[in-house]
Design goal:
Layout (H helix, E strand, L loop, with lengths): L11 H32 L6 H31 L7 E3 L1 H18 L2 E7 L6 E3 L1 H17 L5 E11 L4 E9 L27 H11 L3 E7 L3 E9 L5
């Protein structure tokens, strides 16, 4: 008698809920651990002996690792739930301008100038504003980090007509360090990162959000010359 077939895999939404609940529990435990480490640090607030100073350094390392775990848990929860969207017809300019206004002051401190060029009369797109802002913020922060000596970050909104439908496109172009060709195919994989302190979930979450909106995201890059991400979103029917 043959072995029974394995049970069907749970739907993606159920997996997301299970993963989100699991990570939420881990995050609670890490927060409790971090609180106790903080209380321990207060016991060594004024170290006097070499042994106490060593203890303080170890406590500081523990605090740093706890914070990394909390950040990772938060990033993973966003990734797990990114496919659940609540869209509404939205002008692209409304969302992009909001993120540009938010990020521009800190970008200028890093000598990065942000410019936004929306084409006239762009049709609306069906967007979950909060999630798409997160998606765009990921791309813009990555671009800023790729320009440690300053540069320009240019965003272009344009219309692309195809036989089956119209697409509203958003180009995010930086003049940064660029990405090696062998890294480009791996760029959107979860937990793949080229950053020393990165988690590898930012771009994976960005791609997941774009796909949930029925869109696509592509990247072009050349080391030493910068990077261009292109998001294509279906225009709202009849817009």
């Amino acid at each position: 008698m043959s072995d029974p077939s394995p049970p069907p895999a749970p739907p993606t939404t159920e997996l997301a809920e299970v993963a989100g609940g699991f990570i939420h529990e881990i995050k609670n435990r890490v927060n409790a651990l971090s609180l106790n480490v903080q209380l321990l640090a207060e016991d060594f607030e004024t170290p006097e002996t070499p042994r106490e100073r060593r203890a303080v350094r170890r406590i500081e390392r523990l605090q740093g690792e706890c914070q990394k775990l909390v950040d990772l848990a938060s990033d993973f929860m966003r990734f797990a739930r990114a496919q659940t969207i609540d869209p509404e017809a939205t002008p692209l300019d409304t969302v992009v301008s909001r993120v540009v206004d938010f990020l521009s002051p800190t970008a200028r401190q890093q000598k990065v100038e942000i410019t936004w060029y929306p084409a006239a009369d762009l049709p609306t797109v069906s967007l979950d504003r909060d999630l798409f802002e997160l998606c765009l913020l990921n791309l813009m922060l990555n671009a800023e980090q790729a320009m440690p000596d300053g540069g320009t970050l240019t965003l272009i909104g344009r219309l692309e007509r195809a036989a089956d439908r119209d697409w509203v496109c958003l180009d995010v172009i930086d003049t940064g360090q660029g990405i090696a060709a062998d890294q480009l195919p791996k760029l959107f994989r979860p937990f793949h990162t080229t950053k020393a302190n990165g988690h590898g979930l930012g771009l994976a979450t960005t791609r997941k959000i774009v796909l949930a909106h029925g869109g696509t995201i592509d990247v072009q890059s050349e080391p030493g010359r910068g990077t261009k991400f292109t998001i294509r979103l279906p225009a709202t029917p009849g817009a």
